[in-house]
Amino acid sequence: MSASADSVEASTVHIRTIKSEVVPREEVPRSLEHISMDYLAERKKPLRARYAYGTIFLIMNLCAWFVRDYGQLVLPQLRYLKSCGTGGRGCFHTLGVLRLSLGCFIYFFIMFLTTFRTRKLYEAGNAWHSGWWGLKLFLFITSMVLPIFFPTGVIQIYGELARVGAGIFLVLQLISVIQFINWWNKYWMPDEEKKQSCSLGLFMSTLFYIASICGIMFMYYSYAFISSCMLNIFFITWTVILLLVMMAISLHSKVNRGLLSSGIMASYVVYLCWSAIRSEPANEKCNKQNLDNGNDDWTTILGFLIAICAIVMATFSTGIDSQSFQFRKDQVQEENDIPYNYGFFHLVFSFGAMYFAMLFISWNLNNSARAWSIDIGWASTWVKIVNEWFAASVYLWTLISPVVRQSKVMDHEDPVVETNDSALA
Question: 0.85 cut: is pTM over it?
Answer without folding.
Answer: no
